[in-house]
């Protein structure tokens, strides 16, 4: 089922007919994984437990194994992420934050999906 095309940190996009653009397939899965990782628990009043809260961890003592485990546990909550092959998750420190690289298999197509982003203050 399509959803609104919306990547974290950007505006909604108009579709070819002037309506709001929709998305489905692997792009929708990527958007959902990113939204889950960057949403702080408690930010969604109807789903207070939703989200990994990576932005709130910026400035905290960096524990790379714990952060990697948090990301792994959260992405598996999305139907778009296949459990096998095991996702590759790399978290690296950058100035005032972390850089995250995730390679996972799309659950519907088996296609390898790359998601890379920085979280900083």
Summary?
It comes from Alsobacter metallidurans. The protein has helices at 25-38, 64-75, and strands at 3-4, 22-23, 88-94, 97-105, 112-120.
Report on this structure:
This is Phage tail protein. The protein has a single domain (3-120), classed as Nuclear Transport Factor 2, Chain: A (Roll), CATH 3.10.450. It is 21% helix and 24% strand. The chain is built from 2 helices and 5 strands. The strands form 2 sheets. A 3-stranded antiparallel sheet has the order 3-4-5, with helices on one face. The termini are far apart.
Elements, N to C (H/E): EEHHEEE
How would a textbook summarize the main sheet?
3 strands, antiparallel
Task: Give the N-to-C terminal Cα separation.
Answer: 35 Å
Total number of strands: 5
Rg is 15 Å
Strand content: 15-25%
Count of helices?
Answer: 2
Q: What is the spatial order of strands in the main beta sheet? A: 3-4-5
- What's the CATH first level? Alpha Beta
Determine the mean pLDDT. 85
Helix content: 10-25%
Stretches where pLDDT is under 50 for at least 5 consecutive residues are none
Secondary-structure class:
alpha+beta
Q: How many domains, in number, for the residues?
A: 1
Organism: Alsobacter metallidurans
Protein name: Phage tail protein
């Amino acid at each position: 089922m399509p959803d609104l095309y919306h990547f974290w940190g950007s505006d909604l996009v108009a579709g070819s007919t002037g309506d709001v653009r929709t998305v489905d397939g692997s792009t929708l899965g990527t958007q959902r994984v990113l939204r889950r990782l960057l949403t702080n628990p408690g930010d969604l009043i109807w789903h207070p437990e939703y989200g990994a809260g990576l932005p709130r961890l910026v400035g905290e003592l960096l524990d790379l194994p714990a952060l990697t485990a948090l990301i792994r546990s959260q992405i598996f909550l999305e139907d778009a992420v296949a459990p096998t092959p095991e996702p590759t998750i790399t978290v690296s420190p950058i100035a005032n934050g972390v850089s995250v690289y995730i390679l996972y298999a799309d659950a519907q197509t088996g296609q390898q999906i790359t998601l890379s982003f920085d979280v900083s203050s």
